[in-house]
Specification:
alpha+beta; 6 domains; 24 helices; about 800 residues; three-stranded antiparallel β-sheet
Length: about 800
């Protein structure tokens, strides 16, 4: 049998932590205004920890040393940041004084001040360099400590013992149970003494806490059910809130019982170590196990299918209703047995046997649940397929929802992990097999928690933050309306909905990232590592000579956002308040507002880049560097942008004009940076690049005059009474409400066409957009009045018969 690793005394880690705490207290005792002393103390701490990292340290010692190094790093970085402004001010004053004159006398006060500033600058520069050196060295040593922890974890994880099927393993285990002398463990006597000290009052307190927990569980359960049924909105948020409440309520009674037991054992005086640590950990594991059971029961909702969040058949939910409680109980029992064996310093054979039983039971419970779920699902699918077409079972597809691909892959991964766990236990890698089995439970717990929280975030924002769509809030416009401004369509409800979607997405992403960190925590990448990496982000990332820091990025985003809000407010003020008081028409007002928006956006971007630390000269350098790429790859974009500026400045076309361009005819709705939107007669929109208006022939119907021409050409026979036809046409034009009196309607005799007289009647309306409809109405009226006046519009051709013998008319 492989040798057992040497047990490390429990107090060693605490001793290291106490020594580091004393060092931290000594460092904090230094005056705050003496950074040199603080840096010297930090230097000594780093050197001491570096020497200890060269040897063999326990996991507790590595954790304590890593925490101390991170504390040193934060203190050194803070000193560097606080001293940097002083150094900048001293250098600025030294620059104002200038260099000492060569060969000329200088005032003694100025020379003394220059010497003092030079000395101060050198001291501050040396202090900042030392602080940053300590910061970098502390981070490197902290990473080294974390790597040693992971190495120890992996070494322990892949340590091999006698195989479960080997005779030597069972021989050692039989000798362990056949011996008469049991190893003495101090925690057993401590636990017996603690129970013996529990008085009647302590037992009453424990029962009182248990009864309070049970009463609260019943009362809060009823309150939550009533609130969810009557006072929650009719949306999915009521189901997610109810599931979260049920999960937390499941932790109440077991947690109250465990806390009451810990309270009773510590009634007269606190229990000593290691029993005190065992009881504290026991309380946490009870809460975790009950949380597992409550989360599984809440998501399954076997008794309340309407409140179920996980899509699954009712039969499967009812079959699995007790599996979460069983998994929670096995987790609690396995942890308790492992911890008691470690405290009792049991033989390696006993520890291996406990790990084997724990991992095998976990694998058996999880595997049985998966197998039962798959069997019930296949039975439901077979029943639905065999049911006749008119049966209700065949018409209920929600009972057997299709399985997504990611679910199939996840189940295959779980089966593979369970098989690998059993194989590792059988061949002797008990630690690895137990770790894999426990990791399956841990991944399930974290994943289901993240699933519930992401649903809760989405439902809360969709129900209580986002505003429902109302008439006109979706950005639609009534028929025939011309949008004066693009900003006018952005209502407060739109902005709130956009902010709600962004906030919900950010929170869901944060939940997923935290879940990923928690899943990786057993591998040595815990929340502390994440927090330490987030703390390093404050230093920033160097991009050339530019130091990009998250604080500077946030400040730049804030400056850009405020600048854009100011631009939007000024555009709204120009469009609604100032420009209507001028003599500019609607198209010119729209062009001026759009041009102001372009300029404001460019200035907002420049302000944001300046806030991030990119000076204007660097911005010009970047623009000149990008101009090479623009010249080769973005010629069309730049051409359209410049053409848009020309359209806004020269105004050959403006918003509201009716134009014809290359077979496209319609109203200009909006002139954007790159293209112009033209609305056709069928209400469709054509996007035309701005350069087309500069390089091609454009017909602007409404440029010089907004009036529309109504023209009717009427062919009549040669013997028609022309005076009557002219009066009839003029009367039709003059009596129509939409035809303008000035310019007056006119009727001309246009000429002859195929033996007919052609009359040309013209009139004007207020807009070319009305010409088509007015022309149609006039044609209906003219044709009716011609029939009423017995004025035929067509004469049948005369038929002349000739004698074929004489070729004379018959």
């Amino acid at each position: 049998m492989a040798g057992r690793p040497q047990a490390v005394p429990f107090t060693t880690g605490w001793l290291i932590a106490l020594l580091l705490a004393i060092c931290a207290a000594a460092a904090s005792a230094q005056p705050v205004d003496d950074p040199d002393a603080i840096l010297e103390t930090a230097r000594q701490r780093v050197d001491s920890i570096e020497k200890r990292l060269q040897g063999d340290s326990t996991d507790a010692e590595l954790v304590a040393m890593r925490d101390a190094l991170l504390e040193v790093q934060q203190g050194a970085e803070q000193i560097a940041q606080t001293q940097a402004p002083d150094l900048a001010r001293a250098q600025a004053r030294l620059t104002e004084l200038g260099a000492a004159p060569d060969g000329a006398r200088e005032d003694s006060d100025v020379a003394a001040q220059r010497a003092s500033l030079q000395k101060t600058t050198e001291a501050l520069n040396a202090r900042i360099k030392l602080a940053r050196l300590l910061s970098v060295e502390s981070l490197q040593l902290a990473d080294q400590a974390a790597k040693q922890r992971r190495s120890r974890f992996q070494a322990h994880l892949f340590e091999r013992t006698d195989a479960l099927l080997s005779p030597s393993f069972w021989h050692d285990l039989r000798d362990l149970f056949s011996t008469d002398e049991a190893p003495h463990s101090p925690w057993q006597g401590q636990l017996a003494a603690a129970f013996a000290r529990m008085s009647a009052a302590a037992w009453l307190a424990w029962f009182g806490v248990a009864l309070i927990g049970i009463a609260l569980r019943i009362a809060l359960g009823r309150v939550v059910a009533r609130l969810a049924a009557t006072h929650s909105p009719a949306a999915r948020v009521r189901r997610t809130l109810y599931a979260l409440a049920q999960t937390l309520l499941w932790m109440l009674v077991p947690g109250a019982l465990a806390w009451g037991l810990v309270l009773g054992l510590n009634w007269q005086r606190p229990t000593p170590e290691p029993l005190h640590g065992l009881l504290a950990s026991f309380f946490g594991v009870v809460l975790f196990s009950s949380y597992l059971a409550g989360l599984g029961r809440a998501l399954l909702a076997a008794d309340q299918p309407a409140w179920r969040l996980v899509p699954m058949p009712d039969a499967l939910a009812r079959a699995l209703r007790w599996q979460p409680a069983v998994i929670g109980s096995v987790t609690l029992a396995g942890w308790l047995l492992q911890r008691l064996a470690a405290l009792a310093q049991a033989d390696l054979a006993a520890e291996v046997a406990i790990n084997c039983v724990y991992a095998l039971v976990l694998a058996l419970v999880v595997g049985r649940s998966l197998r039962q779920g798959e069997r019930l699902r296949r039975a439901a699918l077979a029943a639905a397929a065999a049911a006749p077409p008119g049966d209700a079972a065949a018409e209920a597809p929600d009972e057997t929802p299709p399985r997504p691909l990611w679910v199939s892959l996840m189940l295959a991964g779980v089966w593979l992990a369970l098989v690998a766990s059993v194989v590792c236990i059988v061949i002797g890698y008990v630690a690895l097999g137990g770790f894999v089995a426990r990791q399956v439970i841990w991944v399930f717990a974290v994943s289901l928690t993240a699933y519930l929280l992401t649903l809760l975030v989405a439902d809360v924002f969709d129900t209580w933050v986002r505003s429902p769509p109302v008439d006109g809030a979706d950005g639609s416009e009534p028929d025939g309306a011309m949008p004066a401004q693009s900003d006018a369509a952005v209502s407060p409800s739109h902005l709130r909905n956009q902010a709600a979607v962004i906030a919900a997405g950010g929170l869901q992403l944060a939940v997923l990232l935290v879940a990923l960190v928690l899943i990786l925590a057993p591998f040595g990448e815990g929340p502390g590592d994440l927090w330490q990496r987030l703390g390093q982000l404050d230093v920033g990332v160097a991009v050339g000579e530019l130091q990009v820091r998250p604080v500077a990025v946030l400040r730049a985003l804030l400056v850009f956002g405020l600048s854009m809000l100011a631009v939007r407010a000024l555009k709204r003020w120009l469009a609604n308040s100032f420009l209507p008081t001028t003599r500019l028409d609607a198209g010119m007002r729209s062009s001026a507002t759009t041009l102001f928006g372009f300029v404001g956006t460019v200035l907002a971007i420049a302000f944001g880049l300046s806030a991030i630390g990119l000076a204007l000269d660097k911005i010009a350098w970047i623009a000149s560097a990008l101009s090479v790429g623009i010249g080769f790859g973005l010629q069309a974009v730049v051409s359209n942008f410049v053409s848009g500026l020309i359209l806004l400045a020269e105004r050959p076309v403006k918003v509201g004009d009716w134009v014809t361009l290359g077979g496209i005819e319609g109203d200009i709705r909006r002139i954007n940076v790159r293209a112009t939107e033209i609305q056709m007669g069928d209400r469709s929109t054509v996007i035309v690049p701005n350069s087309e208006f500069i390089t091609k022939t454009v017909r602007n119907v409404t440029l010089a005059s907004p009036l529309g021409l109504v023209q009717i050409k009427l062919p009549m026979p040669l013997d028609t009474d022309t005076e009557r036809v002219r009066d009839l046409l003029l009367q039709a034009f003059e009596q129509h409400d939409d035809v303008l009196e000035s310019p007056q309607p006119k009727v001309y005799l246009d000429g002859f066409d195929n033996g007919n007289l052609v009359f040309n009647a013209t009139g004007y309306v207020v807009s070319p957009r009305q010409s088509y409809a007015v022309k149609s109405a006039l044609l209906f009226r003219v044709l009716k009045e011609l029939r009423d006046a017995d004025l035929p519009m067509w004469r049948p051709p005369s038929l002349v018969l000739r004698d074929p013998r004489t070729d004379a008319p018959a």
